[in-house]
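Appendix B.2, paired examples.
Example (i):
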Amino acid sequence: MNNTITDTNFNFPNQISFYKGKVREVYTLKNDLLVMVATDRLSAFDVVMPKGIPYKGQILNQIATKMMAETQDIVPNWLTATPDPNVAVGMACEPFMVEMVIRGYLSGHAAREYNAGKRTLCGVAMPDGMKENDKFPQPIITPATKAEHGDHDEDISKEEILKTGIVSSDDYMILEKYTRDLFQRGTEIAARRGLILVDTKYEFGKTKDGKIVLIDEIHTPDSSRYFYAEGYQERQDRGEPQKQLSKEFVRQWLIANNFQGLEGQSVPEMSDAYIASVSERYIELYENITGEAFVKANISNIQSRIEANVLTYLKA
């Protein structure tokens, strides 16, 4: 389990700053160039787990880059190159400090809030009489403020976003349209794979010339929840849990082991066997979401591999 990348400390030519997110590490270079490294860190309930998951960073990076290629005709994105299986390179943007979460079904966080008796989420009404994993009459957008340095993201309404000026009214209209268009495209892509895109989040930024672009990841198992389409309605009719493709299985394992990221709770120990099983599930996610066989990169020395590939790209 040692062949994972959980932290980086590169010093690329013309590097001017470094940012460490929950999973990704971002190096800003001169000429508005970003080098984003997808690590093998696992985050759940906005808490980074102590151990990395083999191949997870590669999986997230390759799904995200494939999905950006499949959506660039409807929404511009920041990406220009992928010189390494764990690395994406693109243009620097000023990120909007909200995550645009869109939900087609009553699942995950929305279901937990609903089951606690709430009928509004982020100022959006949820109909009475729904069961967990039922489809909403139409997808709902439930934004969250972007947390910094591992703190919890917080639900926020459109009204609060506009009132506090986190995003201007004109920009928010564009973010909403892009979010709905991306979700529609993601739903169509998922359907071709025999999947249902249940919910997801998108992040956006603005380039120096004022263009709004899609940034970060898209339609990955870390940012999205998928159900298998086959048998979905039968499972709903019988009141059974849905067969999922997402990291919800990790959240459920943590909940079963008395952890939800709340104050005073400790992260349960993840055995090597459990970590290996999580890695296998991520590979399964990759193959189902993309419809392609996963090709494992050489992980004998990930740090050196990444550094060499990025340096070769930058020199070229």
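Example (ii):
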Amino acid sequence: MIYGVLAGITWALETIILGIALSMTPFISTEQAAFLAPFVSTFLHDACSAFWSTLYNGIRRNMKNVWKALKTKSGKFAVIAAVIGGPVGMTGYVLAVNYMGASIGAVASAIFPAIGAVLAYFFLKEKMQWYRWILLLITLLGVYGLSYSPELDMTNFVLGITGALMCAFGWGIEAVILAKCLQDPEVKDEYALQIRQTTSALTYGIIIIPVLKGWHFTIDLFTSNTGWLLPTIAFAALFATVSYLFYYKAIATIGASKAMALNVSYSAWAIVFTVLILKDTSVLKPVTIICALVVIICGILAAADFKELFGRKEKNQ
């Protein structure tokens, strides 16, 4: 459970740092730059994270085991999870942060535990009680309610909420697939992270960036004077890598639903860090706080099984 909480804290820090990078001049200088920013920043983010993962596994002499894990059936499914969680989920997350702000984007995308529970119901045949469906609906209404905070600086709520839904489905599906993959003793959490980040970076570099004709813009970021942009993205990726390590360990030890429920605390931490680090108190509005609490609390409860929790308590007594 500590792994899950630490995953949430470190991901909240990643969110704040990535939000700073997205607000820098190279990503807002032109209309094309603003359009490409979510995709290029995610590519650079996951590429840096793949580097940090390689460094981590290299120091621990795990690279042979990573390659061995990749050859297994579970390893191949981890690649599929990577494509869904990276290019789909992470792009959606960056869209949400870019168009709704770091704190609200984090809260809006925090519905993924509920989405993961629904997906587990359909694909893994896990039970989904009636009250969890109701809590899921309340969670979605709470996300929608975030748009009714006129004091907040949201540049495009529609694109932001679209990104949040992409993120929720991408990360929800990813967690469900990974939960199965990590049951294979040959696919440990740190191996799965290496596969995930490398696959995501390659998918962006080989398919998405060329399709969007964004390579020229990406290369310009390295050849022109962009100040602290690239180091900031690399720093955000470092926190993301640490967060994923904790998150995958939580999935491996306590299961996908519980890990997602704990990891979702990043949305609350993002608001705290927005106030403490960015000195932005615009998020401290009644509507925003209430809707954020609804999303966090109901999102967690929608991923929980009350009967199992209370049943275990009674059994222990």
